[in-house]
Amino acid sequence: MGFFHKTELVQVPKQQNLLPACGACGLYLTCNSPKMLPYGQGRKKILVVGEASGKTEDDVGRPFVGKTGRYLREKLGKFGIDLDRDCWTTNALRCRPRSNIIPNEKMVDYCRPYLIQAFEEYKPETVILLGAKAVKSFIGWVWKEDCGPMEKWAGWRIPDQKTNTWIIPTWHPSYVGRQKEEGDVVTEMYFEEHLRQAVEIEGRPYKSISDLSSKLRLIVSPQEAALALDSMRKEEMPIAFDLETNSLKPDSSRAKIICCSVSNGEYSIAFPWQGEAVESMREILKSRIPKIGYHLKFEHRWIKAKLGITVRNWIWDGMIAAHLLDNRGRICSLKFQSFVLLGVPPYETLIAPYLRAREDSGNAINRIHEVDLNTLLRYCATDSYLEWRVARIQSRQMGIDLGI
């Protein structure tokens, strides 16, 4: 292994290719307006990204001039927005696919460099993503390549930290139009609301973006961790805490808590589950200090099994709150909520392979013991810090005062 730890060798975040792969795609050979350029004056600093040009757009050589474009212009006009004057328009694919059907998902990846180039040239403050291919192209760049189905994205107002830009995904106008023709007026109502929220935003999400690592305190010494926990307990402020364990369930004799983190919303401390730190944590968990969790059943069960106590005064479960606020599937994970609510980029890339056990059993042992300690503590500290911050947003959305 040399001087490198396993976690430094397993998985490096994928770097985006900034050169379009037109040769691999080949669509430029079959359309009238190959590599169609973005259009518009962008006075409101809004970038509108569609999926691909239709026949009219391909014939004219401009995005959004056909039936879909007229529909979009009508909807934006309700809010005083002129598509050509106030926005820039482009597509996930710059060349029209035959029959308006994208034959290969990889073509979106091949063309993404053009979208990145347009973004970096125009520097929009708001990006409206129309349809699944636009979501795949842009969110595949700023968040994760595998961003999942369109159903989980429509309607979020994402304060992306990577670009300091508001991202508003919604359905493609052609889909909304088809739904309306079939008697579905609800989709159109939501579509208009998404556009309204997008165009009413002023400025960027952040004046400055703070470094998340500055909020994390990694403490290897159990004695130092105990002192930090005792100080936090005396503050009597609501906390979020998170455990990293070597299995999903605590029932096996081999099941162990590896590390823990606690956040008061201002910062997070993470420490190995050892010695004096465990005893100080026991006092916090027994106290009346309000506790915040994310899928708190996990921590509650582990603490009961390993310390023989019941966590006192739970006040919030971020996963349950996410489901209550929006009952769509595949949106309740902490990582997804941290992105759509806080714009936080992925931070689990190096850790994720080690959290999966080789066996399909809740008592199976994972490979967390192979992870470099500082890497693991940083991941754990990030979890509890974001749990606290997500809980604050969720509680405010629900009109509940958690005192945070």
Descriptive overview:
It is a single chain. With 404 residues, the protein is of the alpha/beta class. 41% of the residues lie in helices and 13% in strands. It contains 16 helices and 11 strands. The protein has helices at residues 6-10, 22-25, 55-60, 67-77, 83-86, 106-122, 132-142, 173-181, 186-200, 222-235, 275-286, 296-307, 318-325, 334-342, 352-355, 373-397, and strands at 46-50, 87-91, 126-130, 158-160, 165-170, 216-218, 239-245, 257-263, 268-272, 291-293, 314-317. The two termini are 45 Å apart.
Shape from CA axes? elongated
Residue fraction in strands = 5-15%
Q: Let me know the average pLDDT.
A: 94
Order of helices and strands: HHEHHHEHEHEEHHEHEEEHEHEHHHH
Largest beta sheet: what is the strand line-up? Answer: 6-9-8-7-10-11
DSSP helical segment count: 16
Give the CA-CA distance, first to last residue: 45 Å
Largest sheet: 6 strands, mixed
Helix content: 40-55%
List low-confidence stretches: 1-13
Structural class: alpha/beta
Rg result:
24 Å
Q: What is the number of strand segments?
A: 11
